[in-house]
Design brief:
Oligomer: homodimer
Largest interface: A-B, 46 and 46 residues
Number of strands of chain A: 2
Subcellular location (chains A, B): Cell membrane
Radius of gyration of chain A: 25 Å
Helix content of chain A: 55-70%
Number of domains of chain A: 1
Subunit structure (chains A, B): Homodimer and heterodimers.
Transmembrane segments (chains A, B): 38-61, 89-116, 128-154, 174-198
Strand order of the largest sheet of chain A: 1-2
Pfam family, one (chains A, B): CASP_dom
Largest sheet of chain A: 2 strands, antiparallel
Shape of chain A: elongated
Family (chains A, B): Belongs to the Casparian strip membrane proteins (CASP) family.
Amino acid sequence: MASENYKTAPQPETTTSWEKEPARPPVAQPRPPPASHLALVDVVLRFLLFASALVAVLVMVTSKQTEIVPIPFYPFKAPASAKFTHSPAFIYFVAALSVVGFYGIITSLISLFSLLRPRSCPKVVSHFVIFDVLFLGVVAAATGTAGGVAYIGLKGNSHVGWRKICNVYGDFCRHIGASVAVSLFASVVLVLLVLFSIRSLTKKIPK
Amino acid sequence: MASENYKTAPQPETTTSWEKEPARPPVAQPRPPPASHLALVDVVLRFLLFASALVAVLVMVTSKQTEIVPIPFYPFKAPASAKFTHSPAFIYFVAALSVVGFYGIITSLISLFSLLRPRSCPKVVSHFVIFDVLFLGVVAAATGTAGGVAYIGLKGNSHVGWRKICNVYGDFCRHIGASVAVSLFASVVLVLLVLFSIRSLTKKIPK
């Protein structure tokens, strides 16, 4: 709708006015140019990153399950719990996804603020891509670590005598698997964020 | 040295001549402009990526170790091997690093060719950053997966009864650890490649 108002109003050389008058104060431009679709996609993807990281952490930390399992003294059984703190891989997963979720909500708010007021912080959002690349590595590594350990829990490893546990702790394994899947989605969101940042950089380069 | 010749020779408006004469044939420009340092860094980093992926794969596939270990029939012992094919995580690791090493040598050759003949394929190298981002996710996930499984082999997990194997298969574990460390280096190289690509894109944007 804003772009239609632009077309009807008489505005000579609107697109290049900022190049010719760099010292023009912001109060002289009450209506900023319509926001790019890429900026809106950036906000949505960052919120998706926050949401997926939050879901992955919550599903992982609520995975505790207690079952009655046989103990070495044959006829007796005892309750035993499976929870994510029993594996360093899952602890790393929760730590990494918590940091990424925090990063996601902070940057989505800054990106939304930058979308609503484009002249307030023009440079900040373009620098997020550096952290996006770093966090992509962190989230992908966390997903791989948790997935590798979860796969041993699901299938076991007969070569070294690691028995599977998912036949006993089914709910625990379902939580772990869902959490890893959501974390994989967060990795894809981070890849898309980096690619969109590169796309918006490429669009600024003159032909 | 090429830049000094540029300064001494009388060349009016050398830096903007390509903008004003886009239809000038290549034979009229026998001396291309000096290559950017960023392009040289790109070639070196891509070769480092290839070398580190190759080393990681070679160290992993040569990790086989055979030891005399006790078998369930108590007084007897038998030889048993540990090799990377016993774990799906290590197979994924070898597959991922092989693909990345192949990608590294191909792109380093193209990047070197583009460095020597800048006008032959100006757009190709700038598109590598998309695959760099994707392969960063793949290598980071492979590093995390192999690292997570290797950590169980090193420390075991008493909660689920997974015993450690590195006290028996020491050489095998050293190979795995070295391979994961080199793979981590490859991940860092990929992060640097993406950041340098973004940096070179940012330099092309007019102020």
